[in-house]
Amino acid sequence: MPLVRRGTATTIRVVKFRKESVVVVERKKALLLGVGLDNEDGEVRVTRGRDFHLVGGSHETHALMQEKCIKFTEKLDERGKQLAELETGEFLDLAAECKMNVLSKSKRTERGE
Q1: 60 lies in which domain range?
Q2: CB under 8 Å to 26, separation ≥6 — which residues?
Q3: Is residue 111 part of a domain?
Q4: What is the pLDDT of residues 48-101, one digit of tens each?
Q5: Residue 111: CB partners within 8 Å, gap ≥ 6?
Q6: CB 3.0 to 4.6 Å from 30: which of 15, 22, 42, 83, for a disulfide?
Q7: What is the domain count for the chain?
Q8: By 3-state DSSP, what share of the chain in percent is helix, strand and coil, each rounded to 5?
């Protein structure tokens, strides 16, 4: 089964010049990462989109991951939002609507990781 994980990062730096400080806020970024693990034909499959990177999988699995990520991106556009703007619950709801298998901290904790 392909897994999708969302990651975000925000950095705030304070840069000091002689008598004044300037606050530099770097943009918050998010990306869906899809990994297919059922490749047996030796092909390397990689797809990159605005909000996602997909790697590996059989032809069928990779195509399925592409379809789900495109649907996810379309739903984001319908809501007028960027991936980095989503709260965790909203992200999980949207991923469920697209029938994505999501790896989250809560699932890893339940499995004892």
Answers
A1: 3-104
A2: 10, 11, 12, 13
A3: no
A4: 998 899 999 999 999 999 999 999 999 999 999 999 999 989 999 999 999 998
A5: none
A6: 83
A7: 1
A8: 35, 30, 35
